Amino acid sequence: MRKNALASLVPPRPAYLKSLVKQVPGLVNDDGHVIDIWTLCLPDDATVLSDWAAQFRQNYCLDDEIDELRDGTGLSRRDYLLEMVFPAASGGTGPATRSGDFAELLVSDYVEHVLGFWVPRLKYADKTNPSESMKGVDVVGFLQLDTARSQPDDQLLAFEVKARLSSTGKGDRLQDAIKDSGIDFLRLGYTLNKAKRLLRGRGDRHGVKGVARFQNKADRPFELLFGAGAVLNDAIFDTDVVQASTTDDHPHRDDLQLMVVRGADLMNVAHAMYLRAADEA
Predict the structure, then answer these.
(1) What is residue 62's three-state secondary structure?
(2) pLDDT in tens, 117-153
(3) SS3 for 79?
(4) Domain tally for the chain?
(5) Residue 2 lies in a domain
(6) d(CA 85, CA 95)
(7) What is the DSSP letter of 75?
């Protein structure tokens, strides 16, 4: 892992990542692309789960802002988060958004703490309707070697994430992620602008400059990388289906990395994480 000059923007590594175990060897599809396979084994340590829940909660609402934001609603911290901030557990688009957000945040932790990038996450706190998914590139990671000067070896990683956390349905979400990743370069500029505006609103000048370094590739070259990932319930994980995923139509297939996270009963894991994050606020 290369040293990232933006590392001060990265939150502490959550202890639950010790339970994210890489399968060795991984899989290889018919195109010759390596697919990294990771298994999430839910930790049984309450302290680890509480640490995860606390960091998870910050993506939606900082702890030191909850009381001010819920003032006037008549809601407790718990109920404010569950009713006004987190995607709904049932009804409408809530469960699908909850599933998607959980998967994106899991991959964000992977991109930050395993791959060594910095991932801005303010979009989750900027929703008008918490049960609607956000537009743009799902996960964007930044790696800058020196904040004092731009270098061609600086890297930007655009990662598309798809999820199927329930035990029913097809396990072909990696192919869906590859397809959507193929147009990420078209929406990357809008995603960077949105991230920059949110960081500016937070008064995060370091973060604003970090994003700005990657907004003009023509004049300040950098390596543009892509990722496609799926988060799947073990019940629908199928090696043959995953290996059948093709990258032939991806315009940047040579700069594309593939990964799958699998785990048991992941929809209930996600529900439990949102509930713990609210209960322990």
Answers:
(1) coil
(2) 999 999 999 999 999 999 999 999 999 999 999 999 9
(3) helix
(4) 1
(5) no
(6) 14
(7) -
Query: Domain residues for 166?
Result: 7-279
Q: Provide the CA 96 distance to its chain's centre, in angstroms.
A: 15
Measured CA to CA, the distance from residue 72 to residue 70 in angstroms comes to 6
In this structure, is residue 151 part of a structural domain?
A: yes
Instruction: Sort residue 159 into left (φ over 0), alpha (ψ -120 to 50) or beta.
Output: beta
- Give per-residue pLDDT as tens, 187-240: 999 999 999 999 999 999 999 999 999 999 999 999 999 999 999 999 999 999
CB-count exposure of residue 148 (10 Å: 0-12, 13-18, 19+): exposed
- Residue whose tokens read 């718990």: 78
End-to-end CA distance of the chain: 34
Residue 1 lies in a domain: no
Distance of alpha carbon 258 from alpha carbon 250, whole angstroms: 12
Distances (CA, A) of 222 to 151, 152, 210: 7, 4, 13
* Phi, psi dihedral angles at 71 (to 5 degrees): -60, 130
Which residue has 């995860």 as its token pair?
Answer: 52
Residue labelled with tokens 């370069």? 185
Residue-wise burial string across 93-118, b where 16 or more C-beta atoms lie within 10 A, e elsewhere: ebbbbbbbbbbbbbbbbbbbbbbbbb
66 occurs within a structural domain? yes
Report how far residue 4's alpha carbon sits from residue 146's, in angstroms, rounded to the nearest whole number.
8
- Identify whether the C-beta of residue 144 lies closer than 8 Å to the C-beta of residue 215: no
Contacts of 172 (CB under 8 A, 6+ apart): 241, 244, 245
